[in-house]
Amino acid sequence: MANGNKGGGMSGLLDHVRESQVWNSIFRPGSPFRAGYSDSPRNRSYVIMNNVLYHLHPVKVKRHGVRLSYTLCLGGLSFFLFIVLTITGIFLMFYYRPTSPQAYLDLQALTTDVAFGNLVRNMHRWGAHLMVLSVFLHMARVFYHGAYKPPREFNWVVGVLLLLLTLLLSFTGYLLPWDQLALWAVTVGSTMASYTPVFGSQVSFVLIGGVQITPDTLLRWYVLHVLFLPFIITIFLAVHFWRVRKDGGISGPL
Amino acid sequence: MAEIPEHILRRSAEARAKAEGRSVEEVLAELKGEAPPPPTSAASGAAPAGRDLAAEAESSGVPQHLLERAMRARAKAEGKPVPAAGGGAATATATATAPKPAAAPAPAVPPGVRTQRLLTVVKAGAIQQVKREPHDKVNVWPHLLAIEFVALLACLAFLIVLSIFLEAPLLEFANFNEQPNPSKAPWYFLGLQEMLAYFDPQVAGVIIPGFGLAALAMIPYVDKNPSVRPSDRKLAIMIFTFFIMAAAVLTIFGSFFRGPGFNFTYPWRDGIFFDDLKAILE
Ligand code: HEM
């Protein structure tokens, strides 16, 4: 399948690499990155089928499902924002210690001393707001399409859990800068939860680790924010995507 | 050429060997490209000269009388003498040794045209349940992946531009002794905080969000209407839209129209008391 006439120099080297065993062991048959890829119906199927993408996408979807105006890409963008938040969040973790007053000092240093630190912090913060927004809009679009109707009832329930987890992720992150905004916004938010009938004080105790916010709360919310909640939401995302496919792909057309 | 699994090669070799009256091993070797194909049979258009119908019937499962009838019909169509195929083993051997028709007529198929043999017709329903809705489908690659990729780039570009021009707030160090006035929850909880102004905290802070979430999760089990056409779902759409609008109005109210002491304020008169988006709005 080699190209008949190999150029010398750079392109010759490229051809050589693309025909090597290492290359071909990475890109499975049908991959557009393989030498000799041609655009055929069979290869179009292989691009998905022979690829880790097969975990997310079927080979074919209903034609109306790819129209931008149907999903508005909102579910996909929610997921993409989650990935961006994971990447920027890992970057932030390198510079952040969840203790008082170090947390605040670390954030100050991040915005002034670290290359791209401020940009990444901004991306993490605005990305989080955008994700709440896009998940909410995704839910609305699913409702208006009646896409929660059988057989998709349970995926809607999974979606409601995802919405709740998204809010919790955002809310736990809110405390971490340990500034006046963080402290008092979280105070107001978690005071509401302490009004839970009967179990109020227990709920509050579990949530903030005491009767009021302390540096212990900071550590607790940090662990929830960077480990526990992302872990849980990842599991539910997997279920959510799997169900989208098992329920017959995207719903509709209307 | 793609690798063809061994068992499929063997199956087709067996079929061809039977049709051409050769040994399976020979055909198999030829299929694998290990041996040259035999010289093309002179009698390619002619019916196989001799056939052991009894054996053939047994191996193929086609009743012998049908095989005979097919052979006779083909011979007649080709204008050749009907081979004597009485049925017994003796007759079959006799036909097998009978001389071939002297000059086989040239094949009726013009050169360059490919002919195909229909081997078996199996009705789909007989071996598998086929449930195919007549859906209009497109390949995910490239149609969907390209769109997703562009959406992803646009989203990333938007986020980066936003982050270059808008600073995320970082106020003074957390001070337990100095509560800012007003103190507001993150914006997505401001609708709830707004309701605190009207209801008992237990109702606004716990019961409404708790029941709200439960009600949201139960929508698919309560709404039994199977139609997805908007014109059939007027009530459902009305109720949902009402709650969405209520949440939006409460959130906007809590964000922009509440000032010190969480008292009512006009943002254009008294300024904005909304730290989340202060950077954008000022
Ligand atoms: C982290 C949050 C979420 C992510 C990343 C996510 C992702 C997705 C994706 C990628 C799809 C494929 C179709 C599309 O893009 O619209 C989808 C479909 C769906 N989602 Fe979500 N989703 C989330 C939250 C929710 C929420 C909050 C709900 C509802 C309460 C929900 C309910 C559904 C349903 C019912 C479908 C099937 C829609 C159809 O077949 O048309 N999801 N989701």
**Helices and strands of chain B, in N-to-C order?**
HHHHHHEHHHHHH
Q: What is the first-to-last residue Cα distance of chain B?
A: 66 Å
Total helical elements of chain A: 11
Quaternary state of the chains:
heterodimer
Distinct small-molecule ligands in the complex: protoporphyrin IX containing FE
CATH architecture of the largest domain in chain B: Orthogonal Bundle
Structure description:
The complex is a heterodimer of chains A (254) and B (282). The radius of gyration of chain A is 24 Å and the shape is flat. Chain A has two domains: 2-51, no CATH class; 71-246, Up-down Bundle (Cytochrome Bc1 Complex, Chain C). The mean pLDDT of chain A is 90. In chain A, 66% of the residues lie in helices and 1% in strands. With 254 residues, chain A is an all-alpha fold. Chain A has helices spanning 9-18, 21-26, 41-49, 68-71, 74-93, 102-113, 117-144, 153-175, 180-193, 200-208, 215-246; one strand at 60-62. The model of chain B is unreliable at 40-49 and 85-98 (pLDDT under 50). Chain B folds into three domains: 6-96, no CATH class; 139-168; 179-281, Helix Hairpins (Orthogonal Bundle), CATH 1.10.287. In chain B, 51% of the residues lie in helices and 1% in strands. With 282 residues, chain B is mainly α. Chain B is elongated, with a radius of gyration of 41 Å. In chain B, helix 1 (6-20) crosses helix 2 and helix 8 packs across helix 10. Chain B has helices spanning 6-20, 24-31, 53-60, 64-77, 89-97, 124-127, 140-165, 190-196, 201-222, 234-256, 267-270, 278-281; one strand at residues 137-139. The interface between A and B is large, with 85 and 72 residues. Strand 1 (60-62) of chain A pairs antiparallel with strand 1 of chain B, so a sheet runs across the interface. The structure holds protoporphyrin IX containing FE (HEM). Residues 71, 74-76, 78-79, 82, 135, 138-139, 142, 145, 147-148, 152, 155-156, 159-160, 162-163, 166, 237, 240, 244, 250-251 of chain A line the site of protoporphyrin IX containing FE.
